Amino acid sequence: QVQLVESGGGLVQAGGSLRLSCVASGLTFSAYGMGWFRQAPGKERDIVAAVSWSGYNIYYSDSVKGRFTISRDNAKNTVYLEMNSLKPEDTAAYYCALVHTSYSDTNYYIRSSNYPYWGQGTQVTVSS
Fold first, then answer.
1. Which among 104, 69, 63 has a CA at the least distance from the CA of 83?
2. How far is CA 28 from CA 1, 58, 107, in A?
3. In this structure, are residues 78 and 24 in contact, taking their beta carbons and an 8 Å threshold?
4. Quick check: 104 pLDDT over 90?
């Protein structure tokens, strides 16, 4: 049974930093691409960042490029999202997701419909 558990969310002032973690179990982690998505109230769930199964292909949305960093540690079955220079508009529930694929094209990883496995979400709130 595949399980994803996110942690690291919280309340932070604008300009601050947070590090989200997503620990996966019940699968061969290194064979999975991973994505971080976020959803603000009343809005759609959008891609934030994604990393391919190999770790060599990485995608960032324009809104977070240069501020967020996605990384993965296969030995720990964990993917991280380092978030710096946070803005109030980053406030949302953040979700990690996994997909078993050999694709390297990042266009594949930005579509939420391609991910069968999702975590429960962790709330990030950035105050101004």
1. 69
2. 12, 20, 23
3. yes
4. no
Tokens for 103? 């694709």
- Tokens 């061969």 found at: 28
Rounded to whole angstroms, how far apart are CA atoms 23 and 72?
Answer: 10
Mean pLDDT of the chain: 95
Residues near 118 by Cβ (< 8 Å), separated by ≥ 6? 4, 95, 96, 97
Torsion over CA: 80, 104, 93, 16 (sign): positive
| Percent of the chain at pLDDT exceeding 70 | 100
Report which of residues 70 and 30 the model is more confident about. Answer: 70
- What pLDDT was estimated at residue 27? 84
